[in-house]
């Protein structure tokens, strides 16, 4: 009896081992042939949006994104389509840094402009989206190449991660105040793209003082804004040194110097830097060349507060040999937080916003779509009151450039370009001296940043 029991025991052990080996081979074959690519398996790995109540948090790290746009473009459309889904915006105090917010909160969805991508990468808050893109069968070929290529270029020299999905193309236009043109009997800018020489001629006629009010003919965001017309980097990607000592940058410095030299542009008290508030609120700037998103949403908020004036849109100007091109199209993007407990739901929200319908809402409310669909551009601005009656199709005259590679230190050294503009405007420096001074300052900053932030 003992022999029989021992024999049965051996046979039983052999059977178990054989079964385990067979099972291991089948699992391996199944993993290799299907894995996460299997629709059934992928379906089981994530919850479909709207199946259960979920609240997702949203945080904007940079770029102009007023509440009226957050509600109109994201929160309200998602709630309408998915009643069980709520998107809540995290609104920290103005003095709070992105790093502070991301260390104390876990926003599920992160909204960024290209100016903040590198800083957020350093925090580790961005999820690599490649697996989510695959799992949710997200078609990246629908995204405009100049936007998608920029996203890929960010990590070209590292691991090839995909940290963001373009939300919209933030293009440039020339805004102009018709009331100021009418006041001084000057013809409006045309629907045809003008050269910088033509725009400066107009600006000179409109920079003047009348009844104690000082009017400025032109605002261009100075060196940083003008450089976007030629797609110029601030720091050389390979050497890590300042990239300002080039013929292209010299051309930008010379143009900015010409603007500052318009009689009356720099006031007797030394005011030289003119921007959005002077155009929108004070209404003393005749023309302003800047981002769409920097103005359209705030102008709509201002309209809702009962403040309106007579303005319109013309194509962004450029150098004569660059006509047909405008400025860089800045990337506004959406990302998933690497620490989120709702990564799949957050990505599905992004995919919904990138759908034809989601992008139609963007276009009709004053944002240029991120996807390839010319029909949507025909609907641009139709649903936002502040753009009614405006020459909105001038937004699409001229080809936007792909944004230059934003170096990991670019945001930190950008103040040096503001200082350089001030040197041109009020400190009496010539172009060559201003370039040399800014170059030296940037190179010193880079060495310091290598120590404080680490070598990129």
TrEMBL record:
<dbReference type="GO" id="GO:0055085">
    <property type="term" value="P:transmembrane transport"/>
</dbReference>
<protein>
    <submittedName>
        <fullName>ABC transporter substrate-binding protein</fullName>
    </submittedName>
</protein>
<dbReference type="InterPro" id="IPR050490">
    <property type="entry name" value="Bact_solute-bd_prot1"/>
</dbReference>
<dbReference type="InterPro" id="IPR006061">
    <property type="entry name" value="SBP_1_CS"/>
</dbReference>
<dbReference type="InterPro" id="IPR006059">
    <property type="entry name" value="SBP"/>
</dbReference>
<feature type="signal peptide">
    <location>
        <begin position="1"/>
        <end position="24"/>
    </location>
</feature>
<dbReference type="Pfam" id="PF01547">
    <property type="entry name" value="SBP_bac_1"/>
</dbReference>
<keyword id="KW-0813">Transport</keyword>
<comment type="similarity">
    <text>Belongs to the bacterial solute-binding protein 1 family.</text>
</comment>
<keyword id="KW-0732">Signal</keyword>
